[in-house]
Structures
1.
Amino acid sequence: LSGWVSGREAEYMETLPEEEVGRKCVETLKGFMKNCVKELPPLKKVVRSRWKTNPFTLGAYCYIPVGGSAEDIDNMAAPVMDNTDKPVLLFAGEACHQSFYSSSHGALLSGQREAQRILDMCSH
């Protein structure tokens, strides 16, 4: 089960213990399912991000600004090459995939792309 909370509510949620977050999530889900399900099993584990308070993200996601384009994403994700045309610095992450920017799926796919680039380089 995965859920998203945004805005000030997400900031507040990061201050709560996991157990309380889990209880509230189950309570909310029960409210939606009250006509379908009598009881829900307790959660085994709660895993959540602390996106806002993480010093490396501070709650930010990438986005294409006004005037930007998908080509900008490709340019940013392009590897830095040495003078023999071998990549010396590779870029992956949620900002480095043209179709799935600003998502964990984009981060995964761009990571796989760059891992494949390394494998291809090693096999030649």
2.
Amino acid sequence: KKEEEVKPEPVDAAKDVVLGGDKDDNGCLASAGYTWSKLNKECVRVFTGIQLLPKDKPENETDAVFATYVLFDKTKNNAEIFLPNQDDSIILKEASKGKSWKNGAWELLLNKGFTLKKEGKVLYIGDGQIGANVSGSDDSEEIPAAK
């Protein structure tokens, strides 16, 4: 008796791809620009926060690649920073009423804009505009002074 030759059926790779199926462990849809905020306990678009740019930006690089974003909780007692190329955000606690927030080596200062330092060295600066140069809107808001 002759065995029949079994030929595999062609596989349609596109059939197995689920669009919008890139949710993280918290259910945030990364392809839509969402990431988990530990501070606010919800999916957020970090680029709607306060944009800080590197103090010493490499030449010929776009701002979006190196930008850091800051989000506050409703009380402005805590700040969350989202650093470029880092998956985990950092929570800073208010150290000086509406003027600075700290966590270990990290410090965020408010004085005519924001300055983010690590171990006393200025790494990022920003004018306090929410989503400036990223959201595509010319109607950026300034963050209200904390307390």
3.
Amino acid sequence: MADAVHKSPMCARILSNGLPEVIKTWTDPKSGAPVKCRADWDNENMGIIADLKTTDDASPKGFAKSCRKWTYDKQAAVYSDGMKRDNFVFMAVEKSAPYAVGVYFAGADMIEAGREKRDKNLNTYVEALSTGIWKGYSEDIVPVEW
């Protein structure tokens, strides 16, 4: 997988300059919650934050499905805002041979959807901190969704 990523012309270009695993911490201005991210790669010269993702399907449709399943939009929003970069890209590499690679840009719609999710999650976190109540699932007995 690593060889496939480094052989990808776009990945090689992104990885040609910058720093790995850049950690940034800050306080969210809306909720007051502490926030932390660790970018896989920060290429300041290109203004790009890159995150490596392994996936079963790195095709455009397959990776979009992974983004929805794993809420990668939220990650893109947190990292872009926290690191003050406008360009967040995913370097997606398939887990099985021939280890196909796709590079995808998190567009404005994706980032905005991620911001909404992030804000909701941070508000839930702050509420739980202040009340000491960490909500899980329903406190009632509910039927199994069969």
4.
Amino acid sequence: MQSCAKLTVRELVLLSLLLAMAVVLRLVENALPYPIQLPGAKLGLANCITIISLLLFGSSKTLLLLSARIFLVALLSTGLFTPGFFIGLGGAALSFLLMAAACRSQLFSPAGIGIIGACAHNCGQLGIAMLLMQTSVLLNYLPLLLIIAVPTGLSTGLIAKYALPAIHERF
């Protein structure tokens, strides 16, 4: 696997475009009104970009992209080093680890990777929230979050699957 320092100009341009799309998708998602107000339940549209990056570049370059996205969104929206930042970071970290493992195993389609990522994100967020609030009562919320994670993860995975050929064609 290549190191992050060995980026070609083409890779750098594509990663920059993917980063810009991920940040915009996340900020737009923050602004969308949701018909059902459930804390922690989001569409996860920026996760499409993470899946695309994992499939195109592998884990090391995707980790670079994901780290930049997390910090940029925090600077533009939630604030750095707030409880919301750490809860989101916990979700993103667990999601990334499991999606990267799923990609390496080559057993999962992009849709499967999306479902794994959405479920892991919710588990990671809930774990950090339980640590911060020092209570395990939040665990009762997990089944509802996982029920919501399956269709949202499926949709982000399918979006990534159908976007990949267009990206391959142009880059």
